[in-house]
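Expect sequence, tokenised fold; for instance:
***
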Amino acid sequence: MPTFHVPEGIRLAYHRKGSGGDQPLVCVPGGPMMPSACFGDLGGPAARQELVLLDLRGTGDSAGPTDPAGLRVDRQAEDVEALRVALGLEQVDLLGHSAAGDLVPAYAARYPERVRSLVLVCARARTAGIDFPVERRREALELRRDEPWYEEVLPAFERAVSGEAGDADFALLDRLSYGRWDAAACAEWFDEEAADAYPAPGAFDGADAARAVLAGPDAPVLVVSGALDGSPRPDSAAEVAGLFPRGEHVVQAGAAHNPWVDGPDHFARTVTGFLAGNR
């Protein structure tokens, strides 16, 4: 298991999978603050493309900061740069899932000259001032009305909206993250304390400046959304793609928030095809 150190002295780990491509695709997990093991092999791209899976601070095999403030998303942008240096790359191809849609653009805004391409999967964009209201998640829930678990999940959703949900409710709401619910969709990765530290006050104060920088570089950007996802809904994902001069948006049918689980072959073809076409 290779490791590297960030400027603060924290030792971080990453994992290599697969082979192929002229350089690896660096993958940053969401959650926020889930370990890279949540990616698996991303549904199969590792068969044609080397993946470098980063364990964020305090997750997986990486050490954490002594102060939880060090988990704030903008402070972790430097970790991606330290990884680029450790890999010996002039530029990086970066994939960010979900809450990593805050971290990866934060890195791109800070180091635009170091980005060769971006893949944003069901990604947030609070770094650039785009957030997804809870009511859009209600729209996605209504798309699942014919699911056998709908009547059980609906009251859990309402309790979550009102701030009264318990652990059992959030466990039920996990079903909304997948287009199909089976054993592959049930892993528990979430660290609530770390997740709360990730978007701490001040993390997105530079949204306007970041948005202006992201509108400049010519790097190709692929935004993948799930047709059943509520955060983001596909039209919101299209807005994220619109941040970038070469932003491309693809909606994966039948997928929710984890499209490499819901349709691995389709997801793998989409990502590897994008990378191959932009090298």
